[in-house]
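Can't paste images in this forum, so I'm doing it all in text. The chain is below; anyone willing to post the predicted structure tokens underneath?
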Amino acid sequence: MLPCKPYHRPEDNELLGYLAREPGGTVPLTIFGAPLGGPGSVEQAEEVLLARGLACLADPWLLRDLGGEETRVAVLAAVVVLATEGADRLRPMR
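Text version of the structure:
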């Protein structure tokens, strides 16, 4: 994945996620780097983050440990201390 740009809600500057430029377009990412949609225009990616960026944290997620084992988790509270590009060990359950 190519470099990401933080995306903040215009009204209050709340971090909603990241915009990742890829060859096929811009991908909206959660605050911890999981994709919320496929490549599209910058405007489409921003719309996804406005609609789902924080709301998706209420969804059930799977946490993958370094050995590849997955555990179902719920985000009860979140503080992003360090987020790295391409960190996709936490993904939504589907």
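The chain has a mean pLDDT of 83. The beta strands are 4-8, 15-22, 25-29, 61-64, 70-73, 90-92.
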